[in-house]
Design goal:
3 domains, Immunoglobulin-like, 323 residues, mainly beta, six-stranded mixed β-sheet, 55% strand, disordered N terminus, globular
Length: 323
């Protein structure tokens, strides 16, 4: 379902550079660079940074727990961020554990070629189906879409990737909008983002208009992901001309780690390999290392004609426990 929209000023292609100290002792960060926040802490709570710029606008970073008693973020400052003094604070649970000041300055010309991540859409597609009842009655419709989001960097992971999807009519007017955050798109990898939305009208969607922003990035790391087998597209039991769900098996191939939960994002392809829709599912049962279990993903697919959906592509957002 649509996520609440937060104000964010990070842009997809920005040069990473640590903030430098000004003559007054307040760190400065140029537009298009990254504000570095790092400190030691004893807190074991989930912590979230918040930046406030000189005009009062705010930017949120990703939530995380301390590792080795340290917390750090690299929050990208947009090229359009307001100049002047800003502040940041880190909240761990209900407690503010650290605060700081900085100043945004104009960007300087640079010949640097740092390999900062950039997320692009390789392919996209959608299907729309008019409603005959439900929340909006017979006057609404719903759309199912699929996107392939690729991280162009081979050395940097993209974190907290914000995606804004606008549904655009043939006359250029927006029919609806929704937002979503992808927690991680690893260096050089592609994330299959599938989703759906109910619309209040039956006006045909002509195209999707996409905005993508990267909240943070980090040096490439090794990430664990489950594997999948025996995946199949299942028609809707009430009307077999539409897709009902995607079923299959999830396999925990990580050594000595229990797969605690998995969010599945699924894009459906037609016979030519083009997206025709997408959806999602979740598995919350613990899965020990070396074992497998059935998954059922049934959210968002029922606007996709069954005859067009040929191949499912799955991306996982897993959570692991040790042991």
């Amino acid at each position: 379902m649509p996520h609440r929209l937060f104000v964010s000023f990070a842009v997809a292609s920005l040069a990473l550079c640590a903030a430098t100290a000004s003559a007054a002792g307040v760190p400065t960060v140029a537009r298009g660079q990254a504000l570095q926040i790092a400190f030691a802490t004893r807190s074991h709570a989930i912590c979230t940074p918040q930046v406030q710029y000189s005009d009062g606008t705010k930017q949120l970073g990703s939530a995380k727990r301390a590792r080795g008693a340290r917390l750090s973020w690299a929050l990208l400052v947009a090229r359009t961020a307001p100049l002047g003094a800003g502040t940041w604070s880190v909240h761990c649970g209900a407690t503010v554990v650290h605060t700081g000041r900085f100043a945004v300055v104009a960007q300087q010309a640079s010949g640097g070629t740092a390999d900062v991540p950039r997320v692009v859409v390789d392919k996209q597609g959608f299907s729309q189906r008019n409603d005959t009842g439900g929340w909006f009655g017979a006057t609404g419709s719903h759309i199912s879409f699929g996107l392939f989001l690729r991280n162009t960097s081979t050395t940097q992971d993209a974190i907290n990737v914000y995606v804004l999807v606008n549904m655009v009519a043939a006359n250029g007017q927006l029919i609806a909008s929704m937002t979503h955050n992808v927690g991680l798109i690893a260096a050089g990898q592609t994330f299959a983002y599938g989703d759906s939305m109910g619309l209040r009208s039956q006006v045909s969607v002509a195209k999707l208009e996409l905005t993508i922003r990267i909240g943070e990035h980090q040096a490439k790391q090794t990430h664990l992901f489950p594997e999948f087998a025996n995946v199949r597209i299942v028609p809707n039991q009430q009307d077999t001309s539409w897709v009902g769900e995607v079923d299959g098996e999830v396999l925990n191939t990580a050594q000595a780690k229990t797969l605690r939960s998995t969010h599945l994002s699924i894009v459906l392809l037609d016979a030519s390999g083009n997206p025709v829709g997408g959806g999602s599912g979740d598995s919350f049962a613990s899965l020990p290392s070396g074992s497998r279990m059935v998954f059922l993903a049934s959210s968002g697919f029922d606007a996709v004609p069954a005859e067009r959906a040929v191949t499912p592509v799955i991306s996982a957002e897993p959570t692991y426990d040790i042991g």
